[in-house]
Amino acid sequence: MSTTTLHARDIPRADRATTRKHRDAEIQSWRDLMDSLDEADWRRSTVCTEWDVADIVGHLCGQAEDVNRPWSFPLRDRRARRDYPAIGLLDAHMLVQADDHRGTPPAELQERFARLWRKATRTISRNPALIRRIQMKVEGMPGFDKLELGYIQDILLARDLWMHRDDVCQTLGRTFDAGPYAEELIAQVMLDVQDGPFWKGAPVELILTGQGGGSYRLGEGDPIATVRTDAVGYMRTVSGRDDNPRVELLEGDQLGAEAVATCRMPF
User: 1 pLDDT exceeds 70?
Assistant: First the structure.
């Protein structure tokens, strides 16, 4: 855990080499996790209420497919609008990803995950700067109306792999190993919280403890409070998975603790 307080706006954006390490580490961690699952584990319902464990893996396979076959993205969007008209497009798209792999035997799903992500990693690494700068319109992610393809592939995919691995560990009652790059992954979330329209409260100093912990300033001006909470747990809160975080006010105004507890950003 870093002991230096850093203003979130000053966090450097992770470069391609760094994010490749993050993604590779998460892919390997997922392969290790899947190797440890028994037949009943694959069918367990998760905190992603529409999905069991196999569905989460199917969604992640779909993420890789959308990298490998870019034309699959608009095709899935079309199906998402048709099949899930009452749901926001992004969530509906992810449901379609999972639908496409539902019913696949676990051993085949594991092999598919490994094969698709090997290819996706090569594709991402080889994409030229011109392709990476393409602006993608994103429906269903408030605050992220348009995103560069490079940001989606470098930052968001590794974040999604990481957070969904915690989802599965939560489901199975296992300890989540946040991995060697957890602090950098979480720092990128803090940067996005500050840069986007997501931090709506007064300035605070936020101390994140445990795996991936660090100390950050959020908001502009002198902090009105110093607040402490668990790092991985707070990622669950920010992403909307846990609306009842344990947030400790160390000093200052209670409004600072409330701002921390209520901050949300789509992952």
Answer: no
